[in-house]
Amino acid sequence: MRLLVVADTHVPQRARKLPDRIWAEVGAADVVVHAGDWVDVRLLDELEAAARRVIGVYGNNDGPELRARLPEVARAELAGLRLAVVHETGPAKGRERRCERDFSGTDVLVFGHSHIPWDSVTPGGLRLLNPGSPTDRRRQPHCTYLTATVADGALTGVELHALPRS
């Protein structure tokens, strides 16, 4: 099972649309995971129409329309992998401890908010992933997103992709 992981798309505020490379990845993915800050419900509609499956949450910049359709925390089992998605996890300091406490029984937690890519594993084995942002690099060298594979309850082939500057 192939995953595309994005967050903080901020369409149409930071970009008028998602990069073409992201749309190509949507077509190749079995599941698209979006960790919030969509900004406009039209992007959710477009992703749901194009993707085989979307797992998403709302973020702090998402208004009532998105909050009515998306949860604050999403949980799913994908090929035996227990996945959770949330927008914010708080400051980087203490993140592993907080997330391990708040998301026990989870194998992988995807989060966003910071626009800073993150990939770590807590002492208890929880994998934490932040894909950065495909549209707003902030202080990062590139806009980014993640892809990964899930099989037999394991996440493999996690790859951070940098998008060319436009």
Automatic annotation (TrEMBL):
It comes from the Bacteria. Keywords: Metal-binding. GO terms for molecular function: hydrolase activity; metal ion binding. Its cofactor is a divalent metal cation. Residues 1-152 form the Calcineurin-like phosphoesterase domain. InterPro entries: Calcineurin-like_PHP_lpxH, Metallo-depent_PP-like, Phosphodiesterase_MJ0936/Vps29. Its EC number is 3.1.4.-. Belongs to the metallophosphoesterase superfamily. YfcE family. This is Phosphoesterase.
